[in-house]
Specification:
alpha+beta, six-stranded antiparallel sheet, binds 1-hydroxynaphthalene-2-carboxylic acid, Jelly Rolls, single chain
């Protein structure tokens, strides 16, 4: 609040300048503390899955560019965003369907939830995807998806489209055909970037050149470290997905993580300026976010907006994926966190 003396002359002054597109800073009412208008929220898989299947009867991939249900923050209806900085969708693709090739300025990540037999094609390479895999679609890369299996496949889409919107830099383009030509061999990205090796002439771009971070390898790393080292008081065993090209995050904007919480784990409350979306890969438990307890099960999604403290409790062994805007916040020097 302003400490300026509110004289009648000052009130007249403030009124006079409004029509000139001017507003006195000393009358500003917006918060100067961390946090956002967004609220914590929880979507249960048991509620989500039937609606995804229902959408399959009503709309096809020929009609819809992508069959995606957007998870919107209750405080931002109509925005398409789950938090100030992040988009979250759930996409379902049926056997035989193709989601046509296009590209756009937002970066996208996928976290695979259910089903086998789907692929994504990115920059001329097809990558088969399985539950628990973390998939990178760099910005402006052509991408199409298909399901050559026998059942539906569901994944979570995470995009940094709030950033392109903020900057007025949202561009998109449809590919002239339904699918892009596959000019790379399946496995090229994994071979070139997935073994702590890099092509000798590799030049780092924006997003990670490693298209798939397979679940089995992530789990193996978490389980090994759980046996060999002490748990973090808030996060259990938590690893971040690294961009092999620079050791930083998979995207210039978004960070992604996987954590393991052993059965009985009671985490200490923690808060951060990051906006974080969680997806429960395995297990059940509860999380208290800004004073509200959400009981979660496998495949549930919840959001912890900036500066909302959160603490986990694991009823059984839990493996939890998350992504946040930490990469952008660190690049800009904004990121803070705090153990409570
Ligand atoms: C998109 O291109 C995909 O390629 C998914 O699967 C979700 C949400 C907003 C804008 C583009 C995809 C999207 C999207």
């Amino acid at each position: 609040m302003s400490t300026a003396a509110h004289t009648p002359e000052l009130a007249v002054f403030s009124k006079d300048i409004k029509s000139m597109g001017l507003n006195p800073l000393w009358e500003r009412t917006v918060s100067q503390k961390p946090g956002s208008p967004c609220v914590p929220n929880h979507w249960k898989w048991d509620d989500l899955r039937p609606q995804l299947l229902r959408s399959c009867d009503l709309i096809g991939t020929k009609d819809a560019d992508r069959r995606v249900l957007m998870l919107e923050n209750p405080q931002m209806p109509g925005s398409s965003f789950i938090a100030n900085t992040l988009f979250t969708g759930l996409q379902i693709i049926l056997p035989g369907e193709i989601a046509a090739a296009h590209r756009h300025t937002p970066n996208a990540l996928r976290f695979v939830v259910e089903g086998e037999g789907a692929y994504t094609a990115v920059n001329g390479e097809r990558v088969m995807i399985s539950p628990g895999d973390f998939i990178v679609t760099p910005n402006w890369a052509w991408h199409d998806h298909g399901n050559i299996g026998t059942g539906p496949v569901v994944w979570m889409d995470g995009l940094d489209s709030a950033f392109t919107k903020f900057f007025g830099a949202t561009f998109r383009e449809d590919y002239p055909g339904e699918t892009q030509p596959l000019y790379r061999t399946e496995g090229d990205s994994a071979a070139a970037f997935g073994s702590a090796l890099l092509p000798v002439d590799y030049v780092q771009g924006g997003a990670s050149p490693l298209l798939k971070y397979p679940y089995a390898r992530t789990l193996e790393a978490l389980h090994h470290l759980h046996k060999s080292q002490a748990l973090h008081a808030s996060h259990g065993v938590k690893l971040r997905y690294a961009n092999p090209g620079n050791g930083k995050y998979p995207f210039p904007t978004m960070a992604a993580f996987m954590q393991f919480l052993p059965k009985g784990f009671e985490g200490k409350p923690w808060r951060t300026t990051e906006n974080i979306v969680f997806n429960v890969a395995e297990g059940s438990g509860s999380v208290v976010i800004a004073g509200t307890r959400f009981a979660f099960s496998q495949h549930d999604i919840f959001v912890a907006p900036s500066w909302c403290d959160f603490a986990f409790r694991a009823n059984e062994d839990c493996v939890i994926f998350s992504y946040s805007d930490r990469a952008a916040q660190e690049a800009m020097g904004f990121h803070r966190d705090d153990e409570l």
